[in-house]
Amino acid sequence: MKVIKFGGSSLANSQQIKKVFQIVQADSDRRIVVVSAPGKRHSDDEKVTDLLIQLATSQIEGKYNEAVLEVILERYQEIYDELQLNSDVMNNIRQHFATLKESNLEPAYLMDAYKASGEDNNAKLIADYFTKEGLPAKYISPKEANLFVSDTPGNAQVLEEAYKELEYLQLEKDIIVFPGFFGVTKDGKVVTFSRGGSDITGSILANAVSAEEYENFTDVDAIFVASPKLVHKPIGIDVLSYTEMRELSYAGFSVFHTEALLPAIKKGIPVHVCNTNNPSAKGTYIMKGKVNSPSIISGIASSSGFVSVYIQKYLMNHEIGFLRKTLQLFEDEGVSVEHIPTGIDDATIIIRGEDATDEILDRIVHRLKVELNADEAHYERGLCLIMLVGEGMVSMVGTTARVASTLAREQINIELYNQGVSEVSMMFGIREEYEKRAIQALYDEFFGEEVEYEVVDK
Ligand code: ASP
Fold it and tell me: Ligand 1: which residue has its CA nearest to atom 5?
């Protein structure tokens, strides 16, 4: 059996839900359908989850916003009408909001109860629609199925015992429509995962029922080898290892929270990323272990906004504990450190720009000079990190040289370079104003031929 998850854009309105129905119906192995809340219908639309957060906030602040409630109800009503449903689900939804309005839950739990209702209501509508269309479907809630999670509102973690509880879902005769994004605590409170968390629900269910595949339907044909925002029409990735995915998402690939896939991946269940709007596209498989990809590089990702804190001290390499003391300063200021490329007498500490204000950085630099007697210390914002990722790199000579000469041709200086021992990825730091040019050039270098081939083939 397959667990199939649809994101918000796949369920934004009745036309999208009709596509979803066709997809589920097309394969009898698709037994468990995990759904998000309705997403944006067009680029300046609002996601139902965002509206729910507004509504919850208004209630928590004591000025309940009826207008927002109306917009939310209209979204569901429109779906209900256009799917020509004839059930009491709309009454049920209205009743649910009336109950929430009177609720005296603590703010954090009230917020989560509202957020969760986005997927919960959608699941009810979708189950009714499937059944009406002749595909018997049953809405099952995380509460009924015991999807137990930690008592951490907005950031739930699945509890180990939930997997055993959920196992029975594989025995259901009807198609199961299961709302994503939330679970229940052991004492029955609704708590959501982090934003985008319906992926997590799908992954947990795939693990619990030992699915043969976890299909994750979104609105792109594949995970692309480079961001379509930076490269014109990049090619898609056929297969990606979990490690590669993890490395890529670190540097800005935003298709998934990679942690979301962990429950499925841990059990060796392949994750298949597909497009609701083009279900016959090949999509991308994400698998456990090493994958044999035809190219050395599986993907190129980049992320801007890093800060480099440069420290220089003569004979640094002889001074026992220097790095530890340096890191202590960052810890004192509550700043998380991302990378530490070192030289003989110097070290660069890379952090994310949003993690430290100029005031904090000035303090750190000052302490480096005064307390640690650094000969030189300064910081610079505006660093872009580029990751080239590929399991194939380990068996190839000369990849670094190709990257370096590509960037040299573009007159782009490499500010720093780092390669992990695993050789699954290499990281380059450049000034962020060159990001687009660098990524395009690297894409042409490593994937240029494939692009040409594709064009000829057409
Ligand atoms: N609806 C939730 C969000 O917007 C969860 C999800 O769609 O995965 O974050």
Answer: 196
